[in-house]
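A quick aside before the break. I want you to see a complete sequence-to-structure record at least once, exactly as it would be stored in a machine-readable document. Don't worry about memorizing anything.
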Amino acid sequence: MVQSNRNLESHFQIPKIKFTQLFINGEFVDSVSGNTFETIDPRNGEVIARIAEGDKEDIDLAVKAAREAFDNGPWPRLSPSERRRIMLKFADLIVENAEELAALDAMDAGKLFASGKNIDIPAAADTIRYYAGAADKIHGTTLKMSRDMQGYTLLEPIGVVGHVIPWNFPTQMFVLKVGPALAAGCTMIVKPAEQTPLSALYYAQLAKQAGVPDGVINVVAGFGSTAGAALCSHMDVDKISFTGSTEVGRLVMQAAALSNLKPVSLELGGKSPFIVFDDVDVEKVAPLALIGILYNKGEICVAGSRLFIQEGIYDKFVNKLEEMAKTWVVGDPFDANSHQGPQVDKKQFERVLSYIEHGKREGAKLLTGGNALNGKGYFIEPTIFIDVEDEMKIAKEEIFGPVLSVMRFKTVEEVIKRANCTNYGLAAGVMTNNLNIANTVSRSIRAGVIWINCYFAFDPDCPYGGYKCSGFERDLGMEGLNKYLQVKSVATPVYNSPWQ
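That is the input. The structure line, written in tokens, reads:
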């Protein structure tokens, strides 16, 4: 592992923070209480800005604005082609402001600036474009009824939606929830994570600039236990879409059930298996396995955190992992040479380090890493444990950091059983050149996304979500649109029809 101290600040001017208030009914406003909270730069632990702290009263105002915009405003009543036009303008504005948006996520979340500017932000615009293209293709069906009746279905927007988004992908989570909800004709309140509110506020003003009417998108920054809880339990919210931990997901469901029984979609934690069979090219697959855990400093719910390697190539594969880890650059996310930035905040930093200590105490062999980097900020070395046992804490619980558990296996049947021996079921990677093995394993693993000979193969058209404690319903794809739609059936009698 190489630590980089260089950064790009001499070449790139860090933008001034423009938006720190709540965005309600098309305007930036202070919170009702006047309270603010600090958003912290994980590169150095310093305060970036003070953000208006939303609470129940602010959620009430945002819901009121969204309800008015849905019940009486133009957005649900616009022609789908007009919604599409506005959303395409929104996407164009995202691209035009890619550098500033990437900088906000780099400062707020420790994400790599170059990757954000060149990959994440353009991909976010593409997600908005995908759902813009779907806006005028929302159709019901004609029913062939058994009686003398004419029947058809209508797909209608579900109403006012509450989006609760996490801190690890502030941009992507914003667009994959807001995009389909906009296309469906819904109005919404976005509650960004308190660690990363900056880009969500910026996106709100870009949407207004694109022509999204007031009240359609509202952003209330604040804490989960106050603003988030108020949103999830609000009697005038018609739907909650939540991405975050399994623990909080349970609270979201409880709040929805105890209020107005609003439907909930959850994308939660994961402990995904990355399975490598001994017929693969180690030189090609080992880098994919390393990226599978270190991408976004391990702060990704589909991280391939359980690496199963077939015994025939175990030693060779482990040696390659160690070799690559030694060249992995951890440093300032504004440094173009950095592969990994800091963990999002001090709490997550300490959580990851505590899991590393658990691994040591449980007897896992530390191959490389295992330490925090000296100096300011929340930087952790890429950490690889080998000879890990399935019952160890580091193999069972989601760490959400750059910590890999490596295990060996013998047979296809064995690895399927071990891969499924988890409370989670979000994703899995299967690396093999044997088509029969690929088909058998991909159909046997209980997870929502299976990647064969690839990893992190996200696409706007590819649904994404989990089994078991990883949640239910899907983001992305047309399934990501359908969850913001209600199905209404209409039936009328048909008299003296010449045919059935």
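Two observations worth writing down. The chain is about 40% helix and 20% strand. The longest strand covers residues 149-157. We'll return to this after the break.
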